[in-house]
Amino acid sequence: MVRLFTAVPLPDTVRQQLMLANGGVPGARWSEPHNMHITLRFIGEVDRGLAEDCALALESVAVSPFRLTICGVGQFGAGKRARVLWAGVEKSAALGHLHDKIESALVRAGLEPEPRKFSPHVTLARLRDSPKERLVGYLQAHAALQVGPFPVDRFILYSSRPGKEAPAYREEAVYALQ
Fold it and tell me: What is the reported pTM?
């Protein structure tokens, strides 16, 4: 079994700029820069055969390169249930189109359709017992965050293994946009 997801990798310059927003929230476990990405589709645990079918199906995704901008911050969960701090992605028809093409290819490969709405973001931190007032302060202080635009010329099929501090991601396949 292997745990998979597809994502847009971020250029080093974008990761470095996002790292400047790290800090000031007790209980936050900040993302390592090399782990920052924009998830397109979480696939989950699949057997090797289905993993190969997914990798092959993704070769059919044909989308032109485009540009993205990271803007604003938010959280998943509220109050004591806040669990993730994220940086948003400016609305992009091209990103939505790429997501839809990936979803179609993976359903054709045998996956169930993704029931959740696509919400593109970059995970900045995972939260545990972070004080609400510090979260509110962080969100206010970084509301105007803007990074980019930057080019998107590929997406990646990653595998993920849990780690002590953070998951370990490995590139399984790279798909160029053209």
Answer: 0.94
